[in-house]
Amino acid sequence: MMQVCLNGPRGAADGASVPMSPGAMADSAADAVLAGATDIHVHPKSPCGQDTLSPRAVAATLTEIRARVTVPVGVTTGAWAESDPALRLEQVRGWTVLPDHASVNWHEPGAEELAALLIDFGVGVEAGIWSGTDGAARFAASPLAPRVPRVLAEVTDTDPATAEASALALLTDLGTSSHGRPVLLHGEDGGAWPVLRLASRLGLGTRIGLEDTLYLPDGERASSNAELVRAGLAEQARA
User: Could you tell me the residue range of the domain that residue 47 belongs to?
Assistant: First the structure.
């Protein structure tokens, strides 16, 4: 599995290649799928370019992307988009267009309640388990864990010299707590490519895109999500 993460919390300051509007996200998603991506993760944006869970922004983003692609499309529910757990639930309850899946970071306040709501809606939950947090332990104890279709193992170590070791430690922490669910392993910034290579060697799903890194494996600036996907698939083939 090669998921493309189109934009993340990045903004206009990160360059024109980062898609910010629903139309730009749809164009980028379509190009990434043509390049070989099989799944999409996107952060809907407010008019001022901030991550948002607002029903209007989520609906516009999903509608535009789905008009261009047929692969599954998922969104973030990160606490940085709405820090108040009660307001976050309220916004998600108001969604009029539902994603195929949504990532829920298990170390964040209100994760259990949010995941339960999404499951009730029929939305697949990607359990976001971050390195350096107690997410793995919380997920292991969660009664919802067996109902989660995929674990999103997120390595927050951005040092290319140590990111692989951090990824292996995270996988060890997950242990059997993944409940046999598929694991998508990825890194970020300097750790993105070492972790992608590790995931490929281990036969795990992975992802790449402008959320995770702005640079190609050779250090050149990436021009698009599609270019990163092509590079990611080439790295997979060499693993």
Answer: 2-238
**In this structure, what DSSP letter does residue 194 have?**
H
Segment 39-50, tens digit of pLDDT: 999 999 999 999
Residue with token string 């991550």 = 51
Q: ∠ CA(173), CA(176), CA(179), 5° rounding?
A: 125
Q: How far apart are CA 55 and CA 63, in angstroms?
A: 12
Q: Rounded CA gap, 206 and 184, in Å?
A: 5
Q: Token match 């104890």: residue?
A: 141
Confidence (pTM): 0.95
3-state helix vs strand vs coil in the chain, percent to 5:
45, 15, 40
Cα–Cα distances (Å) from 106 to 130, 134, 152, in that order, read 8, 8, 10
How many structural domains is the chain composed of? Answer: 1
pLDDT tens figures, 67-97: 999 999 999 999 999 999 999 999 999 999 9
Question: How many residues does this entry show for the chain?
Answer: 239
Beta bridge partners of 122: none
Residue in the structure block whose two tokens are 């969660």: 142
